[in-house]
Amino acid sequence: MIRNPEEFSSFLDSLQKYCKLKLIPLEAEVALLDEVPADIVSDMANFGLFGFSIPETYGGFGMTTEELVLAAMELSQCSVAFRARVGTNTGIGSEALVADGSEFQKAKYLPRLASGEITGCFAITEPDAGSDAASLKTSAKKDGDSYILNGVKCFITNAPISDLFTVMARTDQNKPKANGVSAFLVERNTPGLNVGNPYKKMGQAGSPVSEVYFENCRIPASNLIGSEGEGFKTAMKVLNKQRIHLAALCIGPAIRMLDEIVKYTSSREQFGKPIGAFQLVQAMIADCQTEIYAAKALVLETARKRDAGEDVAMEASICKYFASEMCGRVADRCVQMLGGYGYISDNAIERFYRDVRLFRLYEGTSQIHQLNIARNTFKNAGLSLN
Ligand SMILES: Cc1cc2nc3c(=O)[nH]c(=O)nc-3n(C[C@H](O)[C@H](O)[C@H](O)COP(=O)(O)OP(=O)(O)OC[C@H]3O[C@@H](n4cnc5c(N)ncnc54)[C@H](O)[C@@H]3O)c2cc1C
Fold it and tell me: Which of 49, 58, 171, 366 could staple 182 via S-S, CB 3.0–4.6 A?
């Protein structure tokens, strides 16, 4: 649902201009520095990039799912580093609060997340609990008016620069799997919370990711989000929305790579002709365009269904699975069309090729989404495999 089509279309235009004129020219510098410089972060904050999905009452844009995916498709046409910098605040780092936070928690943190004054992150993954996230071991033990957290989280996007951590921890060791998990807010300066050094990664330079350690980390009991034992449900609400959002974030890079490669193949000549005139090259262009169009249609349809209040758990998996795999295929074809230059590290396509590989791994690997889609397909047919 788009609340005010005219206003929203002019917002998208200005976002497109902002990416083209401000962010894209800085991509190489950000990749080299391996960080988004502070002046750019405050410029992005002034533009409002941190508050897309945070309700208007708390200083955000309060975007509907359809608006969010359209904005994401624009923003993600520039280097992944920029949108990853704002992305936890507009997604997983604020969404648990938006979905299940108390009025007090929302008023305390959401305006600061929306303005970019603080950065949030979402910590569920552990060294022994990745795809099987419900087997997480980090514990949260009640002690009077506090909880005491112990455990290790890994692969946490923006942890090195986060001020606020949404943490999934086990409050009941006796309840199996998801039932014993609760969600907590932990502020960065809390004694007992430590953050590891940023990993050296294959791509996404400028987007810091690290481990997080909790050692007798005491937090006020009021930092529990929702009720004890309901944390996994909160996490699933966050991830279901985020999967549609992430699918949109896979479409922007694919659009950008196709734009770049269309220009390249129309000017690069071999055998006395632009390589774009060769039908085998045209087939790769057509496959990219077709898959981008299909992903867009899929994501927009799912976003609209979610805005209409429908259960889109399976569709969210379909979006994430298809769009992330599609983006990988587009990146691969575009490198192919660049020939040897596609392997040389001074162009956006080579960078995107490495950056977008992550999309198929996080927020549910492709295999986990395939399982989810198949499980729901059997369920919808009234069939059980147990
Ligand atoms: C750069 C980066 C940023 C991340 N950011 C965050 C973050 O901000 N917050 C957070 O909590 N987590 C984050 N993650 C973690 C990410 O979500 C996990 O890495 C992902 O869920 C996979 O878990 P795993 O790495 O332990 O792989 P595993 O679960 O060990 O999977 C390894 C392989 O086995 C396959 N596999 C596993 N189980 C099955 C099965 N049942 N059937 C078929 N195949 C299976 C997987 O598909 C995969 O191919 C991030 C990861 C990375 C790399």
Answer: 171
Instruction: Map tokens 């946490």 to a residue.
Output: 156
Number of domains forming the structure of the chain = 3
Instruction: Say yes or no: 211 and 146 in one domain.
Output: yes
Give the structural domain span for 288.
Answer: 233-380
Residue 131 Cβ < 6 Å to ligand 1: yes
Annotated catalytic sites, by residue?
363
Residues 244 and 226 in one domain: no
The finding on whether 162 has its CB within 6 A of some atom of ligand 1 is no
Question: 345 C-alpha to center of ligand 1: Å?
Answer: 27
- pLDDT attached to residue 175: 87
Q: Quick one: 337 and 359 in the same domain?
A: yes
Determine the atom of ligand 1 nearest the C-alpha atom of 365: 47
Whole-angstrom distance, CA of residue 242 vs CA of residue 222? 26
- Compute the distance between CA of residue 360 and CA of residue 277 in angstroms, rounded to an integer: 32
- Inside any domain, residue 385: no
List the CATH number of the domain containing 252.
Answer: 1.20.140.10
Q: Kind of pairing, strands 209-220 and 224-225?
A: unpaired
Secondary structure class of 371 (helix, strand, coil): helix
Do 68 and 132 reside in the same domain of the chain? no
User: Pairing state of beta strands 164-170 and 181-187?
Assistant: antiparallel
Residues 140 and 216 in one domain: yes
The span from the CA of 347 to the CA of 67, in Å, is: 30
**Mean pLDDT across the chain:** 97
Q: Over the stretch 226-271, which tens digit does the pLDDT of each residue have?
A: 999 999 999 999 999 999 999 999 999 999 999 999 999 999 999 9
Q: Is residue 165 within 6 Å of ligand 1 at its C-beta?
A: no
